[in-house]
Write a structure and sequence with these properties.
homodimer, alpha/beta, 12 strands
Chain lengths: 337, 337
């Protein structure tokens, strides 16, 4: 019968597919704008292979300087004059019109800025901007652990917890650029206070900052030391310190990591159920460091949400530090395809 | 600058919009297949106005008879020969290819059936099938409380709790046809047992069946009667009995409804946050009966999930009994547009 008879053949689907199953596409420049540094790479958006690695510190004197720095780093990439587009991952909510509402980790970026247009003025080329975590999700979907899967959730567990959502092979952004904010899903009503003003959000249990805050609270309340609370007196705690504390058998760390696994299991299970998502790809400092045993801990959590661990597969992220730049480049290549 | 420079101008967006902002479209037939009856209406898919109302009981001798009955009811609609398409809402998971995995409330429908093709054979016309709750979501989005909003969650609270998700003005279905299953989001790990085998799912707190089960459990455990447990001895409990119990000040019902509001607040808030959804439309027996005061109870719940009640507006559904048939008709009209 005629192709329109099935729900699967919507008008959009064909267009979507063709944008991706392209033949060879020229390389594009991908930029990862972070709180401390700006990194630009030349990216083959089909394979995800990145070459060159140009960076400079993120300026501290406001968004105009930051955008200047992005343009400057792009110009250092060999062959940048010949690329057809530039993609930039930005650490703030970016709506579908390329407007960045604010960037908590960039000094002075406290108002909406049309970053795409600003960068196009500086570079004279098409520029696509997207949230950096969303770029990471795109990199995993297209050239990482989610290759070939049409719907997935990416979850990055670092200081906080961020995420990105792919449905029907497309990144979902949302009017307010907030899609994928799994870190602010409530896993325990009235639970630990979150930096956003809420309580019991996933990232207060699974993010490094939340774990450390809790370790310190326990140390001060019980007058008993613990590995993390002791370590932080000597400086910043990184994911490797958490891994070391676990290896050392520190009981507080063991408990905090179980809380983290339970929170991730509840949040991921619920989101996967409502969005019918067969795959969650997990990355970020803590997950990269703890690896597959931590995924097992999540899978086996009694708190696994929704239709359970059989409904959604968990995989480790494959693209580590370069995911932001690579994903941004892929989005730029898609936009001009 | 050129239109491709902004993230908003993806290849799909234009196509999507044009499918909807059509001029006058010829009427189509919409069918709502329920566990007890089949209802067919002639629907103006632009305004949502429905005329005619043909129904017959749902056969109990298997899916082939049920599909025969659907075709039969369609043929009773005046002018059905002239419509360009038929839409059918079905009470089971329907994937994007129009395959219905199973229908728990239809005798013998325990295996995947390509219902669209089967009905096309019987009717000689394009047929679109979709999940009935998803049809309800489409009706609210296009000709109900969600008109003009590009992303929304529909939540229908009845015996159980079902939902539908609209993103970028499109119904999201999912590979497994499970998108919108908010009833099976875990709101309390290890909580009340759910019919699906899980625990603490939203519908065990907010659905009528779950509330009644809990009322009976309380009555048997405490040896104290309560309105719902007493009423059920006399027959089925409908939403109006719950409203009556509330009016009568029955303390158990008051508590159960607070649990229901808390569960809905947690689930809706979380899903709205991750999917960046500005609007949730609530309908179904209990919500229709309790109305705006119940929505207030949800808004004010201390358990409201994610970024809170300011992030997602709650509205009462506008399309009541005809939402399934109207939404199915709209999907059919879209498919042939």
């Amino acid at each position: 019968m005629a192709p329109f008879l099935s729900m699967s053949k919507t008008k959009n689907e064909k267009t979507k597919k063709s944008a991706k199953s392209s033949q060879y596409r020229d390389p594009v420049v991908g930029v990862d704008l972070g709180g401390t540094k700006v990194l630009a790479r030349l990216v083959d958006s089909d394979t995800g292979a990145a070459s060159g690695r140009h960076k400079q510190p993120t300026p501290k004197d406001g968004p105009a300087s930051v955008l200047d720095a992005v343009a400057e780093v792009v110009r250092k990439v060999e062959g940048w004059e010949d690329v057809a587009a530039v993609g930039v991952g930005i650490p703030g909510p970016v709506n579908r019109r390329g407007v960045v509402a604010y960037c908590p980790n960039i000094d002075g970026w406290d108002r909406p800025i049309d970053a795409a247009s600003e960068l196009e003025k500086r570079l004279g080329k098409p520029v696509v901007v997207a949230n950096d975590v969303n770029c990471g999700a795109v990199a995993e979907h297209r050239v990482g652990a989610g290759r070939g899967v049409s719907a997935m959730l990416a979850v990055f567990v670092g200081t906080g917890v961020g995420g990105g959502l792919i449905l029907d092979d497309e990144l979902v952004v949302g009017e307010r650029g907030q899609v994928g904010e799994i870190g602010h899903v409530t896993v325990k009503p009235g639970g630990r206070p979150c930096g956003c003003g809420g309580f019991g959000h996933l990232e207060t249990y699974a993010g490094r900052a939340g774990m450390i805050r809790e370790a310190r609270r326990l140390a001060s309340e019980t007058d008993e030391g613990n590995y993390l609370a002791d370590t932080i007196r000597e400086g910043t705690i990184k994911s490797r310190h958490i891994a070391q504390a676990l290896d050392a058998g520190d009981p507080v760390t063991i408990r905090l990591l179980q809380d983290a696994a339970d929170a991730l299991a509840l949040g991921i299970g619920n989101i996967a159920t409502v969005n019918d998502i067969p795959l969650a790809v997990l990355g970020g400092g803590i997950v990269d460091r703890l690896g597959e045993p931590f995924l097992d801990q999540i899978r086996q959590s009694p708190d696994f949400g929704g239709l359970g661990p059989d409904f959604v597969e968990l995989r480790l992220a494959q693209r580590l530090d370069d995911a932001g730049a690579v994903g941004a480049a892929i989005l730029a290549a898609d936009a001009i395809a």
